[in-house]
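Hey, quick one: can you model this chain's 3D structure?
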Amino acid sequence: MATEPVNATEFQELARQALPKMYYDYYAGGAEDQYTLKENVEAFRRITIRPRILVDVSKVDLSTSILGYKTSAPIMIAPTGMHKLAHPEGEVATARAAAACNTIMALSFSSSCTLEEVASSCDADRFFQLYVYKIRDISALVVQRAERNGFKAIILTADTPRLGRREADIKNKMIVPPLRNLEGLISTDVVTDSGSNLEAYASATMDSSFCWKDIAWLKSITNLPILIKGVLTPEDAIKALEVGVAGLIVSNHGARQLDYSPATITVLEEVVQAVQGKIPVLLDGGVRRGTDIFKALALGAQAVMIGRPVVFGLAAKGEYGVRRVVNMLKDELELSMALAGCCTVKDITRGHVRTEHDRVRCKI
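Sure thing. Here's the predicted structure for all 364 residues.
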């Protein structure tokens, strides 16, 4: 691609050209048939926007707050692992870009930079994403390090009792480097002849027994607010309320876990309705345009999380690429709001979108 990208999606082709096939496939791929991977994006396209005209939109304000932390737009950087596979500066470059864009970054448990390196790289609000290991003291130590280093919240990824079947990684015999945040705590060397060492390592370490009652343990080891990532049903949203978490993230793990699980935007509204405004709901998965963000906000999300586009921007152009991706999405959202007649994110309502369900209901 000879010209500068004009939208976030165009960074994917630049990343494909820049990365070894094994690493590109790792970032880009989904589970099994990759049905959910495609649906995460396609489902947004089946939602239309209902603009209102003759509204004074000479000033449009994207700013909002997430768990009380102010941000320039309802956009967060999602936790994605091993950024040094994409760029030598890894998560430090991503963190600096997030700070420059005045948005919140969620640092992955599987970061290739330590949380101390990321915390000292720039001054910004950050959340930390957690997996729970069979040896829970390891997870506890990492959570406590995050708290000491100024991270503002813990995001518990709850949809990974085992790793999804990512066939591209198996074919490529994907090899990942040791996890920097676990140095000195546990061996990260796993040898396997049957597929990716990531899959083998996850099977050896993940605590598949972790369940709802164990949220009490997590709350006992930190004073930070806890969000649960991986909610796809109103039943689980209600359970999350019952155990007293601070927020939910509607997510299918970027379609990397259970294939044929629903596209996140298709279940967002029922999760939002289940929590009845008692805690914030964020959306992760499939966001590629400012219009996607607008649609998610109209269906009740407080903000969206951006994963693959950020990694592709990092792979293509480093810190600058991440900044460009975030700013492109912000610019597109601002334009979408102006053209739809919304001056602030609070002005975006359910009446501004029409879903497939609405169309079926109208026919009935």
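One thing worth noting: The two ends are 47 Å apart (CA to CA).
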